[in-house]
């Protein structure tokens, strides 16, 4: 009888071992599949076809082109030959390195009236942020020029030798040397020599645009500037809280009317995109960072003008539970950082992303002629003027 019991126990042990191995094999096979499925779902949310200015298509390592490269095109980027004039112009430009104190609080982030589900605009959710200081203006060419000269910094667009520019802004000479366009958004062209000093290519400059927002800056460039200035990029929650200016559930920083009393309050596209911009708001491209009226927190141009980088990695899934000082996910399945605010290329019928809740994304090394930033800080850095409301 003892032998029979031992034989039975031995048989049970083998059955348990076989079952254990079977479970382990299943886990090894299916967990990677599930993880890939999750990443694919997040990526598919982003790639769903939508009416857009194609701003997310200008990611440097993801852009695909509508026709094959036929040659190198363009020309070797020369050294900027107008340094003296640029520096002289910069020295006479009014400084815009000013910050305002924003008292923290709780607000409704995102929206349930979602326009672009693939962007992760919704759902509406309660978020609480601590107090912070925010740049009153987007970082201007003049301020970025000071940083470059003092730090000896070279932007990623300069290192790569090109950047994305809206076709309408490029000269015929430069355009004739370009052999490709972004697939699905052919108004975006990769231009040799386009960078913050040459916004539309080698035959352009910023001498008369020192008070305009700096463009062709990557997320990495923006972080470098903020660090040099003793500041940081805002979280997406901080940025949206600041942009809303204390108003709950409003489309724009000032309310729901895009043109209160018939007055332009932001720099966006008027006319038929991308063929015609009537410039009714006064600008075909960027506007000075001091343009239009500020919101109730004293911030200018958080809607339109240029997209603004924030610190968060992209996620299109959000909890509806109260979040306190959310910083976004630890990484992004698509290697994208979030940008907010829309730009001068946005139009309600085509890329309605100049709303407070709207968002888009690019990889951290990407740059374009409508992409800039502003800095935030936990406390006022030394030498920075604080604007009192």
SSE order and pairing:
Layout: H1 2-47, H2 83-91, E1 98-102, E2 105-109, E3 125-129, E4 132-135, H3 141-151, H4 156-160, E5 162-166, H5 172-175, E6 188-192, H6 219-228, H7 236-244, E7 307-313, E8 323-324, E9 337-340, E10 360-362, E11 371-372, E12 376-377, E13 385-386
Parallel strand pairs: 1-13, 3-8, 7-11
Antiparallel strand pairs: 1-4, 2-3, 4-12, 5-6, 7-9, 9-10
Transmembrane segments: 17-35
Family: Belongs to the sulfatase-modifying factor family.
GO molecular function, one term: formylglycine-generating oxidase activity
Can you put this structure into words, describing what you see?
With 389 residues, this protein is an alpha/beta fold. The model is unreliable at 1-12, 16-50 and 68-81 (pLDDT under 50). It has a four-stranded mixed β-sheet, with no helix packed on it. A four-stranded mixed β-sheet has the order 10-9-7-11. Strands 2-3-8 form a three-stranded mixed β-sheet, covered by helices on one side. The longest helix is centred in the first third of the chain and has 46 residues, at 2-47. It is built from seven helices and 13 strands. InterPro entries: CTDL_fold, Sulfatase_Mod_Factor_Kinase, SUMF_dom, SUMF_sf. Belongs to the sulfatase-modifying factor family.
């Amino acid at each position: 009888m003892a032998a029979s019991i031992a034989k039975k126990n031995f048989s049970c042990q083998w059955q348990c071992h076989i079952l254990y191995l079977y479970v382990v094999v299943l886990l090894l096979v299916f967990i990677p599949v599930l993880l890939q499925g999750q990443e694919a779902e997040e990526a598919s949310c982003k790639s769903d076809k939508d009416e857009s200015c194609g701003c997310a298509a200008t990611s440097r390592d993801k852009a695909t082109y509508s026709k094959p490269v036929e040659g190198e095109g363009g020309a070797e980027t020369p050294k900027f030959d107008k340094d003296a004039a640029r520096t002289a112009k910069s020295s006479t430009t009014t400084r815009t390195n000013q910050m305002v104190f924003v008292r923290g609080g709780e607000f409704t982030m995102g929206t349930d009236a979602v326009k672009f589900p693939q962007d992760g605009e919704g759902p509406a959710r309660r978020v609480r942020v601590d107090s912070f200081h925010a740049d009153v203006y987007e970082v201007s060419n003049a301020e970025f020029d000071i940083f470059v000269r003092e730090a000896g910094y070279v932007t990623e667009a300069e290192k790569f030798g090109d950047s994305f520019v809206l076709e309408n802004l490029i000269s015929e000479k430069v355009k004739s040397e370009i052999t490709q366009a972004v697939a699905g958004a052919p108004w975006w062209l990769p231009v040799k020599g386009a960078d913050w000093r040459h916004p539309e290519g080698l035959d352009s400059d910023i001498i008369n645009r020192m008070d305009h927002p700096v463009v062709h800056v990557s997320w990495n460039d923006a972080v470098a500037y903020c660090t040099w200035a003793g500041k940081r990029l805002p979280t997406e929650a901080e940025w949206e809280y600041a942009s809303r200016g204390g108003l709950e559930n409003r489309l724009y920083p000032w309310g729901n009317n895009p043109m209160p009393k018939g007055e332009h309050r932001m720099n966006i596209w008027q006319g038929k995109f991308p063929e015609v911009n009537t410039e009714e708001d006064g600008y075909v491209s960027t506007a000075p960072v001091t343009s239009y009226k500020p919101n109730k927190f004293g911030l200018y141009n958080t809607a339109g003008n240029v997209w603004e980088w924030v610190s968060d990695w992209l996620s299109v899934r959000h909890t509806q539970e109260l979040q306190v000082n959310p910083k976004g996910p630890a990484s992004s399945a698509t290697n994208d950082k979030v940008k907010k605010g829309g730009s001068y290329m946005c139009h309600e019928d085509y890329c309605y992303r100049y709303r407070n809740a709207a968002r888009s994304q690019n990889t951290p090394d990407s740059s374009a002629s409508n992409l800039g930033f502003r800095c935030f800080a936990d406390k006022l850095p030394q030498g920075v003027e604080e604007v009192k409301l």
